Structure prediction request, 183 residues.
Amino acid sequence: ISVPLVFLGAYFGYKKDPLEFPVVTSNIPRQIPEQPWYLNPVITCLLGGILPFGACFVEMFFIMSSVWMDQYYYVFGFLLLVFVILTVTCAEITIVLNYFQLCAEDYRWWWRSFMTSGSTALYVFLYSAVYFSRLESNMFVTYLLYFGYMAVISLGVFLVTGTVGFFSALYFNYQIYGSIKVD
Prediction:
């Protein structure tokens, strides 16, 4: 089923017009002034992941209990609500930190917007390490399976939240630069 979908996506992708940016940029990169300490990429990525993780960590306990401790999970409507809150929080924190970055004349927002909200996955993995203490494990295979699966799940969370952050920052930048009148 993936082969027809690839060709269908390629067909619609080649028919679509390329993305037009609202302003013309120079090919010569500008020198970026000295940034404040709180706009360090590591700090913004670490701070950008705390808020979205805080929006969903309670629900993660119940999901991980259903996966690892054979308990039933039946509140899928609430899970959808938490997912919507997670995506909105990722979009908002990325837009705010992107705005701070652009106000400091740092134009390298593409990957930082992805990493800012994608760093939620780091906290998911750290929470899974804390949650592991609840499990009774005595074999190396248990450690390997648990942390292997949680690494894959964290990678999925990283890709989803990073994509949400990137597209929200792209939309935000498109809107603010589209409203500039250049004569």
User: Anything to note?
Assistant: The chain has a mean pLDDT of 89.
